[in-house]
């Protein structure tokens, strides 16, 4: 049989993706080691991925077909398995394992992390040494006798922790606290682990002693009897049921009705309540919140890791999926990745992902240094405390901005990658629809993104005002020096270069983004001062300038991302520097084009220079396209981790997609055929006669 020459040839998808790996411009394995930190981490990661893949308990391909109950039960089986592993293996191994699990099964990662990250993290960060030892002996670390949850959010309060309504009243007669939910809005809400799992809760409540409030503190409250699992007296708990995503975690609500706990169950590393009722508060109460930054820091890393998976799926699929040809009879259709518009669709997202990877690395280092500094303070006073507070404020603000913009960025990356799959992206079996639903909560928990952005913006304004009074600028805000010298009046300094190469150099892009960020902060300070001039209080003046504060935080965070990206490029091995430089340039240039109005307003780039940046973005996408698949290979996620037939390493997308869908959805008789479909098909259109009327009988 002879094929019609006019019918397009059908390409072998495996051969199509193999073509992409023939001549990478960089050593793939060396980039993997650089991204992971070193060769040992990569080898450990690969070992853990293989262990998970071969463990039947960690099967993930059937997740879309599980019921809510099945999903939760499987997650609990994994907790039983991992609890012993996590507490018996080296910390470094556990951290790598959890970073992989956060991509494989984010709902389980949350359920497990509620105990070890939030509950036990609260103990580590806020318990005194004696209290921590007590709870360790009770089994809080090993999950033997104690499973914990984290009771901060209430039905009526989330981001405003200072406004929480739950009350803990000290009773000097019995040396106890009485924990109580006085209103419906004081009900603890969205508490992970509360519905089915937790025996204890780290409850955030207003401390009330002798009729005086001392702010929100943390109390360990037992929820269930550890032997019978019955609810403790005065504790009511319910299940919040089905959610948008992460159904592995049993979120619930908790109400307390005059629940008594020993005085020693208030965590007293910072604020202390004596037997006499005397309250001893730390010189600087904000030190207690240093440990809460950890969640935000981890979400920057998680954003990078999840984005890597989404881009691997979308890029590999774009390299085997073919649509349309040049019209030549019998010619192969073109790969999606060969279309310039598809390159524009995916490759700037690739650059964003690398920016997040390097920002996460920097943020983790900063956080560890901060916690070391805080732990070494002890009863120190003076310069040591002042330095710690300054570092705490800077780390808090930076982590707040990064958490907000990296999670927003990642959520957009997931959805853009999903859309790039066409109709297949809507399938639950191709991996990105559920990824979107699971990741969306990152934009809300651990601080609503808009609120965190405003906190970052407030820090920027306050730091600029302090600098005007002579305080030194932190390194991350060194670009404000000229503005401070001029009394927050920036002089326009147009860039002189004209060509695409000149306007897109890393030096030019760093200067450009610094100029834009400085301009945004100057405007935010101006709006704050305008509010004060109107007679507004300090807090209300900050609210008056909220829009410009949010914008300043956005520009500052993009600037931070670019500066950290460039710093990592400069430290990278020589063989990797060309591709990483190009990615850093694409990140800075594409982001500048997306915010071109800001650069024109700041007077750094002209309209013609913005057009030159667009030319560079086109050229950079065309260059990076040649390395698109090798770059995703360097992320080093196995097919098991990718968990999408469209993102397979070997490119065999269609066969494996068909096999997965048909194996999980075998042909069966339609269960409602006789009850619904048959009556629909066999119904008649004859009208039924009505009753005989008396008037018709006359």
Low-confidence stretches: none
Classify the beta-strand content into a percent band. 5-15%
Helix share bin: 40-55%
Query: Which of globular, elongated, flat, extended, rod-shaped describes the shape?
Result: globular
Query: If you average the pLDDT, what whole number results?
Result: 92
Number of helices: 24
Total strands: the figure is: 11
Summing up helix and strand content along with how strands pair, one would put the structural category as alpha+beta
**First-to-last CA distance:** 81 Å
* Major sheet details: 6 strands, mixed
Radius of gyration (CA) equals: 29 Å
Protein model, in words:
The protein is an alpha+beta fold. Helix content is about 55%, strand content about 10%. The chain is built from 24 helices and eleven strands. The chain has helices at about 15-20, 30-35, 40-55, 70-90, 90-105, 105-125, 130-140, 295-320, 340-375, 385-420, 435-440, 450-470, 480-485, 500-505, 505-535, 540-545, 545-570, 575-595, 595-600, 605-625, 630-635, 640, 655-665, 675-680, and strands spanning about 150, 165-170, 175-180, 190, 200-210, 210-220, 235-240, 250-255, 260, 270-275, 280. The strands form three sheets. Strands 1, 2, 3, 5, 6 and 9 form a six-stranded mixed β-sheet that branches. A hairpin with a 4-residue loop joins β2 (about 165-170) and β3 (about 175-180). α8 packs antiparallel against α9 (about 340-375), α15 packs across α16 and α15 packs across α19 (about 595-600). The longest helix has about 40 residues, at about 385-420. It is globular and about 95 Å long. It starts with 12 loop residues before the first helix and ends in a 16-residue tail after the last helix. The model has no long low-confidence stretch (mean pLDDT about 90).
């Amino acid at each position: 049989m002879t094929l019609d020459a006019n019918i397009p040839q059908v390409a072998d998808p495996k051969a199509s993706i193999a073509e992409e790996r023939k001549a990478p411009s960089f050593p793939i394995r060396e980039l993997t080691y650089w991204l992971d930190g070193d060769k040992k981490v990569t080898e450990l990661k690969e070992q853990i991925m293989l262990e998970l893949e071969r463990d039947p308990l960690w099967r993930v391909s059937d997740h879309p077909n599980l019921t809510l109950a099945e999903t939760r039960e499987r997650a609990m089986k994994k907790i039983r398995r991992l609890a012993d592993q996590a507490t018996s293996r080296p910390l470094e191994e556990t951290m790598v394992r959890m970073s992989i699990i956060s991509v494989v099964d984010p709902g389980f990662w949350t359920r497990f992390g509620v105990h070890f990250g939030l509950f036990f993290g609260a103990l580590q960060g806020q318990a005194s040494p004696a209290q921590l030892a007590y709870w360790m002996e009770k089994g809080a670390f090993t999950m033997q006798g104690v499973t914990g949850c984290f009771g901060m959010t209430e039905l009526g309060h989330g981001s405003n922790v200072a406004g929480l309504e739950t009350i803990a009243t000290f009773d000097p007669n019995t040396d106890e606290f009485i924990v109580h939910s006085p209103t419906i809005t004081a009900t603890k809400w969205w508490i992970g682990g509360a519905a089915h799992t937790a025996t204890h809760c780290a409850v955030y409540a207003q401390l009330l002693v002798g009729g005086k409030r001392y702010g929100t503190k943390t109390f360990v409250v037992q929820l269930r009897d550890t032997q019978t699992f019955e609810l403790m007296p005065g504790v009511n708990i319910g299940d919040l049921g089905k959610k948008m995503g992460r159904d592995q975690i049993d979120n619930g609500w908790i109400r307390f009705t005059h629940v008594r706990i020993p005085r020693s169950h208030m965590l007293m590393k910072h604020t202390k309540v004596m037997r006499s009722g005397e309250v001893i508060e730390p010189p600087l109460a904000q030190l207690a919140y240093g440990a809460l930054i950890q969640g935000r820091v981890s979400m920057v890393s998680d954003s990078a890791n999840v984005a890597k998976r989404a881009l691997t799926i979308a890029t590999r699929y774009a390299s085997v999926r073919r649509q349309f040809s040049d019209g030549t009879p019998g010619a192969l259709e073109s790969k999606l990745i060969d279309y310039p518009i598809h390159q524009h669709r995916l490759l700037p997202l690739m650059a964003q992902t690398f920016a997040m990877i390097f920002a996460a690395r920097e943020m983790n280092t900063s956080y560890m240094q901060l916690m070391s500094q805080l732990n070494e303070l002890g009863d120190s006073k003076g310069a040591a405390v002042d330095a710690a507070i300054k570092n705490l404020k800077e780390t808090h603000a930076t982590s707040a901005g990064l958490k907000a913009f990296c999670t927003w960025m990642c959520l957009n990356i997931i959805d853009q990658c999903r859309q790039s799959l066409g109709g297949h992206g809507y399938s639950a079996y191709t991996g990105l629809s559920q990824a979107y639903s699971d990741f969306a909560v990152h934009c809300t928990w651990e601080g609503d993104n808009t609120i965190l952005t405003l906190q970052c913006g407030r820090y920027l304004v306050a730091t600029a005002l302090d600098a005007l009074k002579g305080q030194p600028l932190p390194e991350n805000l060194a670009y404000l020096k000229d503005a401070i010298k001029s009394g927050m009046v920036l002089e326009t300094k147009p860039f002189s270069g004209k060509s695409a190469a000149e306007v897109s150099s890393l030096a030019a892009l760093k200067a450009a983004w610094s100029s834009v960020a400085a301009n945004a902060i100057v405007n935010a300070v101006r709006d704050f001062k305008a509010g004060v001039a109107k007679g507004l209080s300090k807090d209300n003046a900050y609210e008056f300038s909220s829009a410009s504060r949010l914008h300043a935080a956005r520009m500052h965070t993009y600037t931070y991302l670019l500066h950290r990206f460039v710093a990592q490029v400069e430290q990278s091995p020589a063989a990797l520097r060309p591709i990483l430089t190009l990615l850093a340039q694409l990140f800075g240039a594409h982001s500048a084009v997306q915010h071109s109005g800001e650069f024109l307003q700041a007077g750094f780039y002209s309209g013609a220079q913005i057009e030159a940046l667009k030319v560079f973005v086109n050229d950079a996408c065309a260059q990076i396209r040649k390395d698109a698949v090798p770059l995703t290979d360097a992320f080093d996620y196995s097919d098991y981790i990718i968990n999408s037939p469209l993102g397979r390493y070997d490119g065999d997308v269609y066969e494996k997609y068909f096999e997965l869908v048909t194996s999980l959805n075998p042909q069966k008789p339609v269960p409602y055929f006789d009850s619904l479909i048959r009556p629909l098909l066999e119904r008649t259109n004859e009208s039924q006669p009505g009753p005989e009327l008396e008037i018709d009988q006359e």
